[in-house]
């Protein structure tokens, strides 16, 4: 990778962008081909899910300017929403001036849950499980020899008593499992199933549910970014850097205090996160579930990110969230386009991927807050959305931009107005 800064990238044709991408990332035309063709055959798709009838395409865009832990990264986004790629790329450019994104991750620990019911004495059962903890961990550790070879395996066993439930008291056993560079669902679920009869024999109870938890709060990704206050100046709109900074902080305070605002605030974070998760063939529904559960871990749903200023008055943003992603197994290894995405970013471990994803999430969050705190969110969306509406109304070629520009000028971006303009310009 030479640099993630490619000047004028948005002005190039699609073919020119692919050529620039190949030059910057050292990807071959063959490696880029999956993003040209869609990357997945009908035969392959038929083996991935049930009742396959075809494929559904989404745009792949490239996030530019990202500097994560001192390394330039070109980031693939798979998303349908306008302004996401542009917004994150521009914020990444501002963050570069402050040294880029500084990201860390915890060990790749996942939680497998086993629900133990039909107990005569839950406290006695709890103690018996702990007495056999070493034995149970040894069994779980041998489930996946390949994972163990790479340093993964069972790490701990925790026992919780659920006192107040609709069925009375029961026990939940947490198996803490190091899944290395995998997302880990298959390994953890298999380990839980293997332990179930052992635990039943020890306690006299019945293991009911045994499944991975998507609240992956032992597998956390964190990122910090500092943006020099002078980089925040928006001279064309008469906003100085201090005003933009304070507007972003005030917008964050709203999300931190109010769950109605926090839901949309965090959705903005996930606009970036999900786009990269999807591009790499990972389970974006699992990431979404974990993120929102983590945002409510205090008992109140709140912001996943924080925004403030340092002693020099610079804007400082942080983001912390569960990030259970993998680079081995699943769709990441089956889907050629996902393989291209991973290759483009140059990631060698799941932790590296998690660090990039959480950096994108913070960048996208900043883009949304900056827009809200200054010119308003619609201005950034308007032109791109207008193009989509123009196409939907039947515009093509140069007419798309003509119709879109007129709707933006009128501040009326609706399908009925687009249809009127198409008829007016074409005479049909």
Describe the structure using short key phrases:
3-hydroxy-3-methylglutaryl-coenzyme A Reductase, Chain A, domain 2, four-stranded antiparallel sheet, alpha+beta, Helicase, Ruva Protein, domain 3, 428 residues
Encode the helix/strand succession as letters.
HHHHEEHEEHHHEEHEEHHHEEHHHHHH
Distance between the termini: 50 Å
Whole-number tally of structural domains: 3
Beta-strand proportion = 15-25%
The number of helical runs is: 18
* CATH fold-level topology of the largest domain: 3-hydroxy-3-methylglutaryl-coenzyme A Reductase, Chain A, domain 2
State the CATH architecture of the largest domain: Alpha-Beta Complex
CATH class of the largest domain: Alpha Beta
Q: Profile the largest sheet.
A: 4 strands, antiparallel
Contiguous uncertain segments of 5+ residues:
none
Strand arrangement, major sheet? 3-8-10-9
The structure class reads alpha+beta
Provide the residue-averaged pLDDT.
94
Determine Rg (CA atoms, Å): 25 Å
- Please name the fourth-level CATH homologous superfamily of the largest domain: 3-hydroxy-3-methylglutaryl-coenzyme A Reductase, Chain A, domain 2
Helix content: 40-55%
Number of strands: 10
Q: What is the global morphology?
A: globular
């Amino acid at each position: 990778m030479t640099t993630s800064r490619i000047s004028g990238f948005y002005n190039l044709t699609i073919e020119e962008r692919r050529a620039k991408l190949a030059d910057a990332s050292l990807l071959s035309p063959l490696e880029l081909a999956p993003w040209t063709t869609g990357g997945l055959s009908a035969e392959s798709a038929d083996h991935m899910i049930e009742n396959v009838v075809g494929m559904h395409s989404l745009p792949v865009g490239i996030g530019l300017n990202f500097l994560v832990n001192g390394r330039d990264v070109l980031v693939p986004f798979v998303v349908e929403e306008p302004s996401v790629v542009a917004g994150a790329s521009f914020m990444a450019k501002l963050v570069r001036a402050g040294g880029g994104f500084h990201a860390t991750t915890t060990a790749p620990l996942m939680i497998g849950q086993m629900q133990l019911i039909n107990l005569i004495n839950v406290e006695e059962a709890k103690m018996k499980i702990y007495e056999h903890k070493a034995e149970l961990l040894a069994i779980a550790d041998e489930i996946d020899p390949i994972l163990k070879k790479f340093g993964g395996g069972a790490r701990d066993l925790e026992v919780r008593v659920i006192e107040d439930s609709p069925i009375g008291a029961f026990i939940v056993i947490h198996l803490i499992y190091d899944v290395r560079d995998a997302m880990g669902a298959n390994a953890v679920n298999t380990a839980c199933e293997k332990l179930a009869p052992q635990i039943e024999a020890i306690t006299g109870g019945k293991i009911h549910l045994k499944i991975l938890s998507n609240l992956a709060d032992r597998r956390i990704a964190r990122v910090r970014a500092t943006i020099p206050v002078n980089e925040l100046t928006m001279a064309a709109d008469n906003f100085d850097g201090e005003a933009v900074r304070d507007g972003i902080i005030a917008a964050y305070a709203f999300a931190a205090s109010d769950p109605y605002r926090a839901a949309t605030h965090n959705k903005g974070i996930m606009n970036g996160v999900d786009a990269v998760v999807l591009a790499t063939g990972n389970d974006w529904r699992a990431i979404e579930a974990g993120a929102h559960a983590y945002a409510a871990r205090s008992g109140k749903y709140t912001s996943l990110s924080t925004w403030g200023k340092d002693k020099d008055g610079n804007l400082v943003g942080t983001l912390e969230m569960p990030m259970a992603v993998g680079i081995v197994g699943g769709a990441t290894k089956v889907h050629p386009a996902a393989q291209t995405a991973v290759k483009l970013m140059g990631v060698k471990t799941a932790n590296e991927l998690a660090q990039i994803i959480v950096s994108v999430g913070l960048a996208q969050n900043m883009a949304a807050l900056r827009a809200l705190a200054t010119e308003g969110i619609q201005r950034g969306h308007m032109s791109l959305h207008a193009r989509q509406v123009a196409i939907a109304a039947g515009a093509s070629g140069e007419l798309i931009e003509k119709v879109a520009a007129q709707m933006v000028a009128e501040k009326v971006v609706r399908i009925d107005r687009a249809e009127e303009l198409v008829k007016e310009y074409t005479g049909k």
